[in-house]
TrEMBL record:
This is DNA-directed RNA polymerase. Its EC number is 2.7.7.6. SUPFAM superfamilies: beta and beta-prime subunits of DNA dependent RNA-polymerase. The gene is RpI135_0. It comes from Amphibalanus amphitrite (Striped barnacle). One of its GO terms (cellular component) is nucleus. It catalyses: RNA(n) + a ribonucleoside 5'-triphosphate = RNA(n+1) + diphosphate. It is found in: Nucleus. Residues 216-367, 466-529 form the RNA polymerase Rpb2 domain.
Amino acid sequence: MAPGPTPEVYVPPAKPSLENLTKDFGKISKTQNKVLRALSQPHIEAYNDVVERGLTMSLASIPPVQFALPDNTKVALRVLGGRITAPRVPMSNVGATDARVFPSEARTGLRDYTGQLVAHFAVSVNGATCIAMDRSLGEVPVMVGSKLCHLHGLSPAELVRRGETDSEFGGYFIIRGQERLLRLQVATRRNYPVCLTRTSYKSYGSLFTEHAVQMRCMTDDHSLAMNVMHFLSNGSAKFIFRYRKERFCISPILVIRALMDITDRDIYRRLTEPGDSDYYRNCIATMLRDVQSEVATPLTSQLSVRRYLGAMYRGKLLGRVPDWEPDEAVCDALLHDTVLIHLNSGEDKVNVLCFMIRKLFAYVRKECAQESADNPMLWEAQQGSYIYQQVIKNKVQMFCSNFRLVMVKRYNKNPTEYNITEMEVAHCFKQLNPIGAMVRSFVSTGNIPALPNIICSDNVGLSVPAEKISYTRYMSHFRTIHRGSFFSTMRTTAVRQMLPEAWGFICPVHTPDGAPCGLLNHLTTTCHVTAGQPDRAAITATVTALGVTPVTQPRPAKQCYTVLLDGAVIGFVSHAAAPRLVNKLRHMKCHGEVYQYLEVALIPARGPGGQYPALYLYSSDARLMRPVLNLACQKVEYIGTLEQVYMNVAVNLREVPTESLALYSHAELADTSLLSSLGLLVPLSDLNQSPRNMYQCQMSKQTMGTPRHNWPACSENKLYRLQTPHAPLFRPTHHDALAMDDFGQGTNAIVAVISYTGYDMEDAMIINKHAQERGLACGFIYKMRALDLRDHNRQNAPSVPCEWGWFI
């Protein structure tokens, strides 16, 4: 992915106006509202990344299914990739004048808006014969507004002709005529080692303590593995990984020896630096000695370690590695699937393991502070489209496993004349059940099946209906980010707190009151969720040219920062040169010379009270970014949650004294950058009590208004409509930016307030009787009925089901 131009940034209008009511009101605009389009950006961009890059990468990463028939014929089934087609009418429908299927047709017909999932398979026999074949695996949901949707790229006038509103921005699926949304969830930042203290770690073994460094490893195809480095009370460390939800414990020295052909002396040099304490050096030496004492036969080479681990874990990898493969192949598969899976080479994994060990011992010696997974600086957004991709991957993996059972069963019926031909492979595929129904079930219910490589804070409720009780409620669904239903049962309120690190990313007032308060949050208006993956090799070459010493060379100075790119150690930079490197990278970001969403987080060395010092560079997807003004370049720069903590950002430059301007490197683009779309719609929010702003965000989503304009093409079970909505005479500036006058939801009223001696009227108001009779606050409730039309006139006539959505 090449660096793109500086993206357009939303800045609220300077002052409100009634221009939308007086200029071209009621006419269809020529272009879509960019502010409304930005609401569904986290969902549509992630889904487009899945269909363009992620799905093929994910399916190609499935390990081949290898097995032997009773006659010792070795068969291997591989998945080369896959694709999802655009929604089209069935091939049997020869009378269709247009093969395309549009979302309005799926709504009115109470059908699913789906496309064909096609996988590319390759079958090899005895390593020689290869049979390539494309196979349809069923219909899977297609996101409305994505590049697969036929609404993509249409103008507002064309959208209206296709049964949509002119402001349709997509970002949801249609299942049985109902709109379903895969909401965002909070997840711990991927590929970042987090210092944790948990008393539950002591139950892992007799010597385990509560201290550990945990890394949530995630590959580019969003496969997930949890790796934890634990500190033991005897001064050593243990490495814990999981395979098929079973926990395993092993010495990190053994893992390093299996990954690289390296001696104990080289390991000692990698783990120690000049100036380390004698206690730390003795602990590392003890770990190296204990490895040999734990095994019966001395492990003197990389091959002997691989054979030892392969023989130990062969029984756990049944089905993953065939029986005829040697023990070292089992070890390679184990390390590939469980240990730092986001890295490909053994040397990269060794470098990160050494970094985790050093950080763990620094944390135990109180040289760095504890970190919290509840802190927004270590958050990322878990996008539903990538979970959708992982569900497809795991179902295809099960599909391949069942292929082996079918072929063996067909062989046993006629073993003497059985030949593996293209026709035979096609017959085996026909006997397998397609996976489309299971994927549609996930989107419909939001429940994740118990599958490997899918670790979420929630396994249920990931899909919610995109309700249109009011237009503001509908908009807020797309910016919702949930902490996880697990935390709603906790008695502590720590996870509900709004921490200062969330400034500019999470709206402080747009959260419901009651049980989900602080757990169900909303992104700010300018917060951007990244999608896609740039070229890491180009970023590595750029930082190396700017003065970073590669990891293969000696350190440039005694005091150096380790430089990590997406969880991989790429080099070192001295303490003196690090600030200049960071400033240069920010300058290049502003001018489009490097990836514009690159996160440059320099954690300085501050002693025992700070985080472990390092320079973290992140370019992966699902990160929260927001625009600010770079004062040195006078250009917009996107910053992330981790780097913002160590930056000085001025809220308003006009309020900063002249002598203090040099302290700030960035400034906010607007005073309201910390609020969500609904938070910006609260009038005079700076003059209200904070709870009142929260209540207003909730009440605006519950009011009766105008949820949509394409009433004949709707299939919601219930809708509310205000008959005579008014445009507010008093409005904030964001009201015009969202074009909320097109979806009026309120009535102007004059309220008389009796002060001091008057009775407490609470939320009441006095209205004119004639105004009420003329339709003040008059509304309608629309309900949907589904009719099944069948031919009952003739006996034994085939029934022709026809479902139709309509309102009464």
